[in-house]
Design goal:
heterodimer, A: 282 residues, mainly alpha, MetI-like fold, 79% helix, B: 388 residues, alpha+beta, Rossmann fold, five-stranded antiparallel β-sheet, globular
């Protein structure tokens, strides 16, 4: 076997290929956002022109604001509903429709977005015919559609967290004098708070990301950010969208790095505390 | 603590006051015909049980015997399907856990993971809206009692198993309950720690005078800790008594076999005199003499129960005297345990008899070993007859 082949064995080749597949498109996009040329494959010099253009584009800014509003509301409401569902499924052994809820709650997770979107659109058409509401698609219809699918994610996440919470913690709180509601709020809720937060973040991301479902249920005047990006890029390459993507990438990247640092620190501290406790015990 | 817990224990055990023997004593906790069904399954089957103030009472039995159900009915997490549960003269049926004068120490300890040791212990007092100084004093006192003052600001995950157990105990005692319920209090600790904690629990119980009711599947733990034991099986109380009553005078084969090790000989009564009963047993190929005043019918099937430590082992035939039971056999197995040796001796009938021999000398070689022909003997007052 040649030296070259031994150095780059099979696994390393796979690794490099995977990384290339993941990151080359992103690099191309980031580079494009700073390229003075309109054409992505032709570098003519560094510029911030596209970023300036982006911040002067009212349509994009309005769409971004709408997206954030919808994402914020949808994820918040879906965490509240998801918590109720997760808790009922774990703590209430019997209620009407329990089996149906258990099996159907995961449906939006596996259903293709096109189908979900189509269903929602048909639903709103029907209610418009029957009740005269909603008069047209827009903020409310997108919000409702987003709640239905983010809620499923929240419910599943919170349910699985609830399964690992020791039931006797709430029992202990009640034994010590707390009523059931107080025991839940003071004991269970703080324990599952990280799961609530992560499902809130998940809902936020899913809602911000969605273009398919929103397209089906929206109407005149309500365009979310992903819909704007999609419609702009559809008409041809537009470097200001590269700039927008670069900004989003920077925000997400910073978030991931910071949360990783925090998690690693917390884990180290926990291990240190535990070994300290063990050492003192003997 | 190590010096005064022993005296505390001794005093508790020598206490001449045994309320359960006093017909006028008022029980503090009372189960009256209590049953509990879960669907088709009967977890507790019309149990009657009286527990007195200041007792350290053990509910013992295998899994599914109903002991935990009884405890949870006292705590208020379950209500009986039938019958009454009384605490200090009050019927507590329907009273929720947060309004009952009892507290519980959970098997998993159930410490609140997001609160420090101090906050865990303070939780019940915070709910009571107590004055700040008084609360602080009570918390410090509780931390002191379980020697956890140094760790007041630790979170549960920063504690060892033994420390968690002590925090759980302090938290359950902070409201000074009338009854403390303990679910398998020592099961999560290793053997050495279990022994130490056992004495601490007894010392604390003696000092506070609170009625402790605990559940365990470990009969040794029950014997070491309790003033009285209730042995349960299939939702029923089989026997209630002091540890020595349960051990020396079991009322059934179930109790004899559940508590400690034993040898059981099935036989029929052939002679019943006022102070001695003679049993004919196939497994001894002869008669067994038992000191007993019970009235039996000739021909009745009974079981003779002989504890392994009551049996003597010798290479030479022991001198025969009235009441002595002697059998011949061969050592088929032995296990060296340091303080004693476990012999399994095969009798002529093929029955395996277990014998515990104390190691009294530090001889290098055991003088009785594998395949030795031996005589095993026990006195008529070293065994007991059970009818079921």
């Amino acid at each position: 076997m040649s030296k070259f082949l031994r150095k780059f064995d099979f696994l390393q080749v796979i690794l490099i290929l995977s990384l290339a597949l993941l990151y080359i498109p992103i690099i191309v996009m980031v580079v494009g956002s700073f390229n003075a040329s309109q054409l992505a494959n032709h570098w003519t010099g560094f510029t911030l022109e596209w970023f300036v253009k982006l911040f002067n584009d009212r349509r994009v800014l309005e769409a971004a604001l709408l997206s954030v509003e919808i994402a914020f509301l949808a994820s918040t409401i879906s965490v509240i509903l998801g918590t109720l569902i997760g808790i009922s499924l774990v703590r209430v052994p019997r209620f009407f429709g329990r089996l149906l809820l258990t099996t159907m709650i995961t449906a939006p997770l596996v259903m293709p977005d096109v189908i979900t979107g189509l269903c929602q659109a048909l639903l709103f058409n029907q209610t418009r015919v029957l009740f005269g509401w909603p008069t047209q698609g827009g903020f409310v219809t997108i919000l409702l559609a987003h709640i239905t699918f983010t809620m499923a994610y929240a419910a599943v996440t919170i349910q699985s967290r609830m399964l690992t919470v020791d039931r006797s913690l709430e029992d202990a709180a009640m034994d010590l004098g707390a009523g059931p509601v107080r025991a839940f709020v003071e004991i269970t809720l703080p324990i599952i708070a990280p799961a609530l937060f992560s499902s809130w973040l998940l809902g936020l991301t899913l809602s911000l990301d969605d273009v398919v479902i929103a397209s089906f249920v929206t109407g005149p005047g309500a365009t979310t950010l992903p819909m704007t990006i999609y419609s702009k890029v559809k008409l041809g390459v537009s470097p200001d969208m590269n700039a927008l993507a670069t900004i989003i990438l920077a925000i997400v990247g910073a978030g991931v790095i910071i949360s990783n640092i925090i998690m690693v620190r917390a884990e180290k501290q926990r291990q240190l505390d535990e070994s300290k406790a063990m050492a003192e015990a003997h | 603590m190590s010096t005064n817990h022993q005296t505390a224990h001794r005093n508790a055990k020598q206490d001449p006051e045994k309320p359960w023997l006093n017909p006028n004593a008022k029980p503090f906790v009372r189960f009256q015909n209590v049953s509990k069904q879960f669907g088709d399954f009967t977890a507790v089957d019309s149990i009657n049980l009286d527990i007195y103030k200041g007792e350290m009472f053990a509910l013992v039995g295998g899994s599914g015997c109903g002991k935990t159900t009884l405890l949870r009915m006292l705590a208020g997490f379950l209500d009986p399907s039938a019958g009454k549960v009384m605490i200090d003269g009050t019927d507590v049926n329907g009273v929720p856990p947060y309004e009952r004068p009892v507290n519980m120490m959970f098997q998993s300890y159930a410490l609140f993971p997001h609160m420090t040791v101090e906050k865990n212990i303070a939780y019940a007092l915070k709910l009571d809206k107590m004055e700040k100084d008084e609360r602080k004093r009570r918390i410090d006192e509780a931390l002191e009692m379980v020697q956890m003052s140094k760790f007041a600001h630790r979170k549960p995950h920063q504690l060892s198993g033994g420390q968690r157990q002590r925090v759980a105990l302090a938290r359950a005692l902070i409201k000074r309950p009338k009854v403390l319920l303990l679910d398998e209090p020592l099961s999560a600790l290793d053997k050495k720690l279990r022994e130490a904690t056992q004495f601490e629990l007894m010392a604390i119980q003696y000092k506070l005078g609170i009625t402790f009711i605990f559940v365990t599947h470990d009969q040794e733990e029950a014997m070491a800790l309790s003033s009285r034991i209730a042995v349960l099986d299939k939702g029923q109380v089989i026997q209630v008594g002091t540890p020595s009553e349960i051990y020396e005078f079991p009322n059934s084969r179930f109790v004899a076999e559940f508590v400690g090790s034993t040898n059981m000989f099935e036989g029929t009564v052939v002679e019943d005199t006022p102070n001695q009963v003679v049993i004919e047993s196939a497994s001894t190929k002869g008669n067994i003499n038992v000191d007993d005043v019970g009235r039996y019918q000739i021909g009745q099937t009974v079981w003779v129960n002989v504890r392994p430590e009551k049996i003597k082992l010798s290479k030479t035939k022991p001198a025969k005297h009235a009441g002595l039971n002697v059998l011949e056999g061969t050592v088929s197995e032995l296990g060296y345990r340091g303080n004693h040796v476990i012999y399994r001796v095969k009798a002529a009938s093929g029955k395996i008899i277990m014998v515990f021999a104390q190691s009294q000398n530090r001889t290098e070689e055991l003088d009785i070993t594998w395949d030795d022909k031996v005589f095993i003997s026990w006195e008529a007052d070293g065994c007991i007859i059970v009818k079921s």
